[in-house]
Amino acid sequence: RKGDLPGAWIPLETASHLAANNEHYARSLVDVGSNIGRLDQALDHLEHRARTAGTAAGAGAPWVTWIEALADSGHPKKARETLAEALRLLPGDTDLLTFALQFQADNGFPEEARELRPRVRALQDKGRARRAEACYLQSIGRPRDALKILERRLKRNPSDLDIARQVAHILAGSEGTGAVLTRVRAWVAARPGDEGFEDLLYEILMDLDHTEEAEELIRRRTEHNPQDAWAWIQWGHARGRRAELAEGEERQRRLADCTSTLERVAEVSLPDAGRMMLEARYRLAAGEREKAWNLYLDALRLDANQHEALSRAVDLLWENPGGER
């Protein structure tokens, strides 16, 4: 219910125990606790959850969630003490070590961070280890050194999309958007048909408001692979944007195009959160707010991490503060 944060406590507390490998619910519990005066109780819950995980495989993630919550809630000393304890208990945990390296660097403890570098480098997951080391170098003002590490890794494994994303991120900060676009376009040209790299280019183009090039990329994707559900959904959003900008008869004509696109999306995709978000956009553009509201809620029920669905639903609440919602 609207504003019923206390009512969310027990479901989130239960979910964070049952979904021990999903940190989303545990983090959400802290957010709720901070808003209803139960932050200390939320932190106690995270401590219990981390200690229950103990030293089992994959136990690092609950410890990281607890440490982050301590730091964010104004307990930096306790956070560092807990991190030190976790590192003693889980000396080789990938989640914990990659987090710790960045945490120490970001919080003004470069010596401690440097001491962690050999342990991070020794991790079996070399991709995550190199990404963590690059983040560390970037945080201490050495973006070029970070790029060297990542580009060597990318040269050995050209299909490592996570490394490519990090290279693009560092380039954007150190050399500007032009350098990023040049590099990512070259990656896509060298990897014809690699949808992961096409997705990366699309995201960057949209972030930079290069919508025409982004839409042309997606249009080609739907032609190259008519069963590509993700591409059809993005193409549907492109048509939705055009409808939102139009008025009168032109809007109605474009909404008719949206309807035909939605029918195609339904043919090639499952009724997942992404499809519901697309239909909700169309419903809003057509003035059907109640239907849009229900679709956003359905999307959130399927995927609680759909932040855009949550944002849009909250916007609708503000527009109708006295309604049943």
Written overview of the protein:
This protein has 325 residues and is mainly alpha-helical. The chain contains 18 helices and no strands. Helix 8 packs antiparallel against helix 9. It is globular and about 65 Å long.
Produce the secondary structure layout.
Layout: H1 5-18, H2 23-35, H3 39-53, H4 60-72, H5 76-89, H6 94-106, H7 110-121, H8 126-139, H9 143-156, H10 161-174, H11 177-190, H12 195-207, H13 211-224, H14 229-245, H15 248-268, H16 273-285, H17 289-302, H18 307-319
Helix pairs in contact: 1-2, 2-3, 2-4, 3-4, 4-5, 4-6, 6-7, 6-8, 7-8, 8-9, 8-10, 9-10, 10-11, 11-12, 12-13, 13-14, 14-15, 14-16, 15-16, 16-17, 17-18
Total beta strand runs: 0
Shape: globular
* Count of separate DSSP helical elements: 18
State the separation between the terminal residues, measured CA to CA. 7 Å
Biggest β-sheet: count, sense, barrel? none
Low-confidence stretches: 1-5
* Computed CA radius of gyration, to the nearest angstrom: 23 Å
Q: What is the structural class? A: mainly alpha
Q: What number is the mean pLDDT? A: 87
- Helical amount: over 70%
**SSE string, helices as H and strands as E:** HHHHHHHHHHHHHHHHHH
Strand content: under 5%
